[in-house]
Specification:
This protein is an alpha+beta fold and 162 residues long. It has one domain: 2-Layer Sandwich (Alpha-Beta Plaits), CATH 3.30.70.1290. It contains 5 helices and 4 strands; from the N terminus they run E-H-E-E-H-E-H-H-H.
């Protein structure tokens, strides 16, 4: 369990919202339509158990989005790694998924309170969204919206062959 360190000070006002994007290893479409509702619910439970505020979980066959609030004492990297590690353990217990892995790289983007509703709606519409756009196109759009130059390095170094 992640600890937020010392007890919170009622004089502090913290609102840090993170949109986390995790891709399956090599981008393989391993998260079936049948598995998705269970996985998203399980990930939501992980988020709450490690001390984060859950806003939305969703995704598609080759990736997941997790939108959460994070206290000041927890790093984004620690939260992301915990979510990915704990969900991988659970997925590997599913028949035929013993070798499941998330790709080690991920995207984490800050979201203002005024954009939270739009972010949650975006995550809820993943299936519809991916009828028109693949994950790489989606990531490029997200990167540009956050002022990050798209690159083929890091997140895309491991790609599926199909």
């Amino acid at each position: 369990m992640i600890s937020s360190g010392s007890s919170s000070n009622p004089s502090n006002f913290i609102s840090i919202r993170i949109h986390l994007l995790c891709r399956t290893r090599r981008g393989f479409p391993l998260i079936s339509d049948d598995l998705q509702p269970e996985l998203w619910a399980y990930v939501g439970g992980i988020v709450k158990r490690i001390g984060l505020k859950l806003y939305q979980v969703g995704g598609y066959r080759d990736h997941m989005h997790v939108f959460f609030g994070i206290p000041s004492g927890i790093s984004v990297g620690c939260a992301a790694q915990s979510i990915m590690d704990k969900s991988s353990v659970w997925i590997r217990q599913t028949p035929k998924m013993a070798m499941f892995q998330w790709q080690s790289s991920y995207g984490a983007f800050s979201v203002s309170g005024s954009h939270s509703d739009a972010t949650m709606a975006y995550i809820r519409r993943q299936k519809e969204h991916h009828q028109k756009r693949n994950l790489k196109q989606e990531l490029i759009q997200i990167l540009r919206a956050h002022g990050v130059a798209p690159t083929d390095q890091g997140f895309w170094m491991e790609s599926s062959s199909g």
